[in-house]
Amino acid sequence: MSMFERLLALILVFAPLSLVSLGGGTSIFAEMQRQAVEVHGWMTARTFNELFAISRAAPGPGSLISALVGWEAAGFLGATAAALSLYLPSSALLLAVGGWWRRRGDSPVRRRIERGLAPVAVGLILAGVLTLMRADGAGWLDYLLLLSCTAALLGGASPYLVMLAVALLYIGLLRGGWP
User: What is the pTM for the complete model shown?
Assistant: First the structure.
């Protein structure tokens, strides 16, 4: 595959994802991983998870993973093409629709759109989380923990307390028991 073909493939992957990234970058991780690993073979699932971890540890939005995927696929030009393809289409759409959206503050149409898109965003984010867990080889305990944390957060628990509890649980499991 030539460099031009790789760059075009990156653009054709990330530009549409830009327009469906409801709820932020996490909502498109599942499809991004599928395209990068299964469809185009730019990297392994493990490499994608490592890039995900790097993008989360680095300052800035987690969707910067697009540049890392582009880098793996086609170097500096790939990183540039992927990042621009992810950010420009949604920015242009926001500029085009933003004025109308602002003028329709209490419109029933706006409320219906927001109510309809909320579950879509949650579903896309969940798909991204499950894809990353599957690629990382998560076991039943990890899935049980995900369900427990979700239930705790839906029940009104503090996210900080949930994270602390999970951290303590994993420390205890990694050390082979509690001190």
Answer: 0.72
